[in-house]
Specification:
The protein has about 300 residues and is an alpha+beta fold. It is about 20% helix and about 20% strand. It has one domain (about 10-300): Oxidoreductase, molybdopterin-binding domain (Sulfite Oxidase, Chain A, domain 2, Alpha-Beta Complex), CATH 3.90.420. The strands form two sheets. Strands 3, 4, 7, 8, 9, 11 and 12 form a seven-stranded mixed β-sheet that branches. Strands 2-1-10-5-6 form a five-stranded mixed β-sheet. A hairpin with a 5-residue loop joins β1 and β2.
């Protein structure tokens, strides 16, 4: 029997039910048409009561405007406002995801079929950027571990690699050489299988906006934000650690693990404090972004200064 881990958390860390389950009325009031309504009410975004929190932290979500207008998504530009300005016409339907590598069920699968029937969750997570800013986002999606179980990777699969869309015609940032495109990220298998790791399809019960990684993105809340690949088109299971984009571009600044660690500074700035978007004052950075109780055991015995 397949069991889903349900961490015990305070009710204060859960997005208000009236907001989430009233999303149809909310979408109508905001003027979204039938297509958006259909996606928001689909099984991909229908939320169960399962949630996961982050210790004793106050997880009041940022506003929709803050979440959708202050982004890192270099495929649409390097400025924080560029994604919201440049991603409006990005086409996310139809969408397919290639499953590859050491896995029993490889192939190219429509997104709807890939996720159909998987338990869906709403989770309010802190998001911490390596540039020392943070926000709180109410995500909707599925646990990555449930998809992995469905795909049945082989015994030699030690890592999971995520590749995002390469389409310079739609993604103007890819016309520059600021990074080596397409964007690639990866996780160790035990990180991918952790109950907090998500594949996200929505925010606030609405379909995830283009500028936030539509239609499918990775969220790993104890790691810096650059680990969360957006607009994913390929998931590959491999025995060797994947070569990831930022780690290849600037290895002394961006490690493969990218765990939030206030004691390990970025070479060009401190990671000891962060600037929460929407607040006036900085806050201390928390080890593993505040999720140490849940994830520290994954790295027992590791030198977290060497494996940054």
């Amino acid at each position: 029997m397949h069991l889903i881990h349900k961490p015990d958390i305070p009710s204060s860390e859960i997005t208000d039910e009236a907001l989430f389950f009233g999303r149809r009325k909310f979408l109508s009031a905001m003027g979204f048409g039938g297509a958006a309504m259909a996606v928001a009410s689909s099984p991909l975004l229908a939320c169960t009561r399962e949630v996961a929190g982050q210790g004793s932290q106050d997880l009041k979500p940022n506003t929709w405007e803050e979440i959708t207008t202050y982004n890192n998504f270099y495929e649409f530009g390097t400025g924080k406002g560029d994604p919201s300005k440049n991603a409006g016409n990005f086409r996310t339907r139809p969408w397919t995801v290639e499953i590859a590598g050491d896995v029993k069920k490889p192939g190219v699968v429509p997104l709807e079929d890939l996720l159909r029937g998987l338990p869906t969750v709403e989770r309010v997570y802190r998001h911490r950027c390596v540039e020392a800013w943070s926000m709180v986002v109410p995500w909707n999606g599925v646990q990555l571990k449930d998809l992995i179980a469905r795909l049945e990777p082989g015994t030699n699969a030690k890592f999971v690699e995520f590749t995002t869309l390469l389409d310079p015609a739609q993604m103007p940032g890819q016309r520059s050489r600021v990074l080596d495109w397409p964007y690639v990220e990866g996780l160790r298998m035990d990180e991918a299988m952790h109950p907090l790791t998500m594949l996200v399809t929505g925010i606030y019960g609405r379909p995830v906006p283009n500028q936030n990684g539509a239609p499918l993105r990775l969220v790993v809340p104890w790691k810096y934000g650059f680990k969360g690949g957006k607009s994913i088109v390929k998931i590959r299971f491999t025995e060797r650690q994947p070569a990831t984009t930022w780690n290849m571009a600037i290895p002394n600044e961006y490690g493969f693990y990218a765990n939030v660690n206030p004691t390990v500074d970025h070479p060009r700035w401190s990671q000891a404090r962060e600037r929460p978007i929407g607040k006036l004052f900085q806050s201390p950075t928390l080890m593993f972004n505040g999720y140490a109780d849940q994830v520290a055991s994954l790295y027992a015995g590791m030198d977290l200064r060497r494996f940054y």
